[in-house]
Amino acid sequence: MDDGLSADLDAAERWVEGWQSGIEARAAQARAMSHRLAELTGKAYSGDRSIEVTVDSSGAMTDLQLDERIRKWPAARTGREILAVMRAAQAQVRRDATKVVAETVGLDSPTGRAVADAFARLPDAAEGGWDAAS
């Protein structure tokens, strides 16, 4: 076989191997991201800690703890407080999801942008009266 042809074939083989390795690495990163995102939860409390809300990775409420002190509140206040604390828990999930994406596939990758955009529907900032749990 001609040395030039042999060198070309070797170079092509190395390129294919590198390409395959890159795909396998990105797939492993995407799997790691997916597992970590699925396990995310957010927890937040009202300022006086009379309300505690936990949400899952989709932002859906999975637990609500109410202190007896809220019995003295008007119903409208109770509803507003619960929603505010739920939004704080959702904001925590959004922040944590952004961190997971950055640590796994990167926020600048197409996959990272798509996932971050999906979590962008959750609140992104605190709006008073509650604390996200750390």
Would you write up a description of this structure?
With 134 residues, this protein is an alpha+beta fold. The chain has a single domain, classed as Nucleoid-associated protein YbaB-like domain (Ybab, Chain: A, 2-Layer Sandwich). It has 3 helices and 4 strands, in the order αβββααβ. It has helices at 3-38, 75-104, 110-119, and strands at residues 42-46, 51-55, 61-66, 130-132. Strands 3-2-1-4 form a 4-stranded antiparallel beta sheet, with helices on one face. Strand 2 and strand 3 (61-66) form a beta hairpin. Helix 1 runs antiparallel to helix 2 and helix 2 (75-104) packs antiparallel against helix 3 (110-119). The mean pLDDT is 88.
Radius of gyration: 23 Å
How many helices? The count is 3
Q: Name the helicity range.
A: 55-70%
Shape: rod-shaped
Q: Which sequence of SSEs, written as H and E, runs from N to C?
A: HEEEHHE
How would you name the CATH homologous superfamily? Answer: Nucleoid-associated protein YbaB-like domain
Short characterization:
By secondary structure, the chain is an alpha+beta fold. The protein has 3 helices and 4 strands.
Give the topology, please.
Elements: H1 3-38, E1 42-46, E2 51-55, E3 61-66, H2 75-104, H3 110-119, E4 130-132
Antiparallel strand pairs: 1-2, 1-4, 2-3
